[in-house]
Amino acid sequence: MDGYWRSIRRATSLGMVVVAFMVLEWAALTALTPVPAALAVSSHATTIAAGYSHACTIRSGKAYCWGSNTNGELGNNTTSVNPVTTPVAVDTSGVLAGKTLTKIVAGQSFTCALDSTGKAYCWGWNPYGQLGDASFTQRTVPVAVSVAGVLAGKTLTEIGAGNSFACVLDNTGKAYCWGYDGEGELGDNSTTNKNTPVAVVATGVLSGKTLTQIGTGYEHTCVLDNTGKAYCWGYNSFGQLGNNSTTQSLVPVTVTTLGTAINGKTLTEIRAGNWFTCTLDSAGLAYCWGNGANGRIGNNSTLGSLTAVAVTTTGVLSGKTINQLTSGGAHACALDSAGLAYCWGYNSTGQLGNNSTTQSLVPATVTASGVLSGKTITQISGGQDYTCALDSTNTVYCWGANATGQLGDQTTTQRLVAVLVTSQPPTAVVATPGDTTAAISWTAPEFLNSSTGYTATASPGGAFCTTAGALNCTITGLTNGTTYTITVVTLMTVGTSGPSVGATVVPVGILTITVPTSANLGSAVSGDTISVSMGTVTVADSRAGVPLWTATVTATNFTTGGGSSAETITNANVSYWSGPSTAQSGGGTRTPGQPLSTQKVALSAPLTAFSGRKTSLFAQSTGWQPTLVITIPDSAVAGTYTGTITHSVA
User: Fold this and answer.
1) Under 8 Å CB-to-CB from 32, ≥6 apart: which residues?
2) Do residues 128 and 82 make contact, with C-beta atoms less than 8 angstroms apart?
3) Residues near 34 by beta carbon (within 8 Å), at least 6 away in sequence
4) Beta-carbon count within 10 A of 215 CB
5) CB neighbours of residue 248 within 10 Å
6) CB of 639 within 8 A of CB of 560?
7) Are 103 and 157 in contact (CB under 8 A)?
8) 569: Cβ–Cβ under 8 A, 6 or more apart, which residues?
9) Closest C-alpha among 484, 551, 570 to residue 512
10) Which residues of the chain have pLDDT under 70?
């Protein structure tokens, strides 16, 4: 802001028998459900804007805003009487579809931005036409600034938002404004509000000038030309136009240089606040003029000035080269070439960021400990009574007033030093149940700010898993059959985001069967019967509830040789009996399929080997040692016969 604004999983096991000729081999197979893969995304802020009571930034060509949203100024197709204390994405389903935003500004309850093609868009409050869309209708999503008139065919390069108006420059160095014009801040020689852009009067002092910078304040506007000269127009009761008068001007006037601190200076940046203006010269020195109350013009005085005065450099700015300025409501800030920030002026809410609420008539160093320790600040923006900044890693920080959540730190608590703007939480959380576990995956949020990873947490109980950046992890130690809500937060260097939308999961446990790896039934002659224990078969059931399970056994024919010389012992000659349970845990019921040898059954068709049911929430385990009985036909020839015995459980 340049100013102040009025399944249950089934496991199967397979086995192979070979006789005497015959050997029995078993191999267990378990079906697993894969965890959905997720891809990380990254994004970087490119600009920052602090408005009257909301702030915005751009990452990867998209805008994100936070703070007050009573008039749709956050642009996410909502309004809210409550503060929005973390960033939300500006809607891109309409005029911003496919657009890459490059610059953003925030005014009093409205926001405007430029895209990479040089077009302008605005959203929010609109009673004076400050959205520039030929209406006076509030918009909760972006609308295109009208190009039907003076902006037809123009490519815009700079944009500013004032109290209830906005201005732009095009690539030919011409200025255009729209919105509130009660004090002549549109520069079109009138005081009539405009809901579409009008050209700033380019005769008079701007005749033949190519404009390069624009600054919009409470009810005045200033520009620089390509020779480093300044011009202003609009309200002037405090001398904020810098022309040694207090006379309002409906058209641009030249900022006085003769006999002032900017005489002979080449100006490179200009910013306008609440009834004052500040500028920067090519040597990195700052100057201000206008209302001096609370020390906002930085010259160790509370007196105003109708012409430019130098910002004090005998203190913290001694030897410093300033490369960026911003003007807030009644304070101003600057960045030096080393990336340190300094502010001066009104400080009732901590907007100077120096851990106090005492106004400063000269620049004071923004506290560089805490979250700013070791950081290089690259952009700074002064809001009504707060300030926001970006560092060289494009991390966003704010400090000062926070009643509407404009600091974006999940609170409405005033901050006297910088705090991190909070990352968004992850989205699209998916929880896949397991045996006392849940596999969690999610999509990374668009707005990441100093992110260091993620934590997924289960409620009730608080079991969690953490990653350093991966978009999935597994929570263990859960209770099967219990319903959990899983939320994921983004971790930051300080603090975390708010929780994601919850995902519900009920760990179900698993049902598995294990068998010996192989069995050799030995040798026999034709007409004999072989009876051999196959080893222990075990079913484990950790599923929730009290489900029934049934183990089924089948067999193939046993063969030897191959091709035309193959010999077969059919599975009708192979009998099976389970015997009783030989090992069990966890309670419940178990029923052998064939508890006695006299109950053996031929494996010419599938048969039930064992069944059981849990009678509590505890896991159940059941083991038995089945016996395989093979009758060798008189016609069998010598050889090694191989067959497969398959156990499965469901």
Assistant:
1) 9
2) no
3) none
4) 28
5) 17
6) yes
7) no
8) 19, 557, 558, 559, 630, 632, 633, 636, 641, 643
9) 551
10) 1-46
* Amino acid in the structure at residue 444: A
Alpha-carbon gap, residue 66 to 421, rounded angstroms: 9
pLDDT of residue 542: 85
Q: How far apart are the first and last CA of the chain?
A: 66
- Residue 414's alpha-carbon distances to 106, 356, 368, 496, in angstroms, are 20, 11, 18, 19
Contact 67, 406 (CB under 8 A): yes
Q: Strand (E) positions, 282-395?
A: 286-290, 305-310, 322-327, 331-336, 341-345, 360-365, 377-382, 386-391
d(CA 294, CA 279): 18
Contact 571, 555 (CB under 8 A): yes
- Which tokens in the block code for residue 373? 């320790």
DSSP string, 240-264: TT-SSS---EEEEEEPP-TTSTTTT
CA gap 538, 490 in Å, rounded: 43
How do residues 506-516 score in pLDDT, each as one tens digit? 998 889 999 98
As a whole number of angstroms, the distance between CA 26 and CA 52 comes to: 74
Tell me which amino acid residue 256 is: T
> 583 by DSSP, 3-state: which?
strand
For the stretch 251-278, pLDDT in tens is 999 999 999 999 999 999 999 999 999 9
- Residue 503 has a CB neighbour count (10 Å cut-off) of 20
Please tell me the distance from the alpha carbon of residue 53 to that of residue 254, in angstroms, as a whole number. Answer: 32
